[in-house]
Design brief:
The protein is α/β, with parallel strands linked by helices. The protein has helices at about 20-30, 45-55, 60-70, 80-85, 90-105, 140-160, 170-180, 195-205, 225-230, 260-275, 275-290; strands at about 5, 35, 70-75, 115-120, 165-170, 185-190, 210, 240.
Length: about 300
């Protein structure tokens, strides 16, 4: 139960967050079916995999460790930070090499790379935020570079026959343009933040839609629209995620998020859809299997 299709495990294991062993043990106790640690930098895949492997190897509960080895998967992606956009041509060969090395690893756990991403377009300008993105920095060259970095990863995913995890914020039209231009129609729009018409455009092109804990604190004057959006998504295209350590659901809003909090998002969405939490878990598990696991040779 309670699959989490998108979280950042390495950001949950420092001194300021919940211990990685506690998180993974809790997911094992919940009989998690699928969990995916998400990449954001050209060189982070081996570090993330080694960290996760080290935490699992250090667990005293070997039954839980076996479960985690089974449900844990990885993506590899380059998030469109200004640095990565500028250095895209320098970094991309190393990025491809790290994926190739993982897929050819002698350790089957390291071969469980099942998606490219997160990658995409972000036009939410917040110079004082952690991302440091300022509209004034995005000259025509930077904007073109952002699109090129996205398309490079779309093309790589097609080459590897892997789905893509797309980050799209305040850039729906441009995102649709990129995936259409590249002929890429295999993946998920993670942490979906648009409306029904945008959802329709992605779904009609073959994409899945994923929601995070942010749906649980939708403003009252927008709740009806959110409910309509959730009901609009075909059940066979729906995924749920935490994006931990970000976007903690109610009642933990404002706190560091954890994959263990995703049950609150499941309960919220299940109530709106008029289904049981158990049925919703089965739906998300089935969709995760169809999109991600079926593409992985392990």
């Amino acid at each position: 139960m309670f699959s989490d299709t998108h979280f950042h495990f390495n950001l949950l294991t420092d001194d300021g967050g919940t211990g990685g062993s506690e998180i993974l043990s809790g997911m094992a106790a919940d009989n998690c079916f699928f969990a995916q640690d998400i990449g954001v930098a050209y060189d982070d895949l081996p570090l993330r995999q080694q960290l996760c492997r080290s935490v699992i190897n250090g667990m005293s509960d070997k039954n839980a460790a076996r479960k985690i080895l089974d449900f844990m998967y990885f993506s590899a992606g380059i998030w469109p930070s200004p640095i990565e956009i500028r250095e895209r041509k320098k970094h991309f060969p190393a990025f491809k090499q790290r994926i190739a090395e993982a897929l050819l690893s002698d350790d089957p756990f390291f071969r469980k790379v099942c998606a490219v991403g997160e990658c995409g377009l972000d036009h939410h300008w917040n110079p004082s935020g952690a991302d440091g993105r300022s509209e004034t920095d995005f000259t025509s060259d930077m904007a073109a570079g952002e699109r090129e970095l996205f398309c490079m990863q779309l093309e790589l995913a097609d080459e590897l026959q892997l789905p893509v995890i797309v980050h799209s914020r305040d850039a729906a039209e441009e995102t649709i343009g990129c995936i259409s231009d590249c002929g890429s129609h295999n993946g998920v729009i993670h942490c979906f933040s648009y409306g029904i018409e945008e959802a329709r455009a992605f779904i009609d092109r073959g994409w899945y839609i994923s929601f995070s804990g942010s749906v649980t604190y939708t403003k009252k004057n927008k709740m009806a629209a959110m409910e309509d959006l959730l009901r609009f998504i075909p059940r066979d295209r729906l995924l749920l995620e935490t994006d931990a350590p970000y976007l903690a659901p109610v009642p933990f809003r404002g706190h560091r998020n954890s994959p263990l909090f995703i049950r609150h998002t499941y309960r919220f969405v299940a109530e709106i859809l008029g289904t049981s939490v158990e049925q919703l878990c089965e739906t998300v598990d089935r969709n995760a299997r169809s999109l991600f696991i079926g593409k992985n040779p392990v």
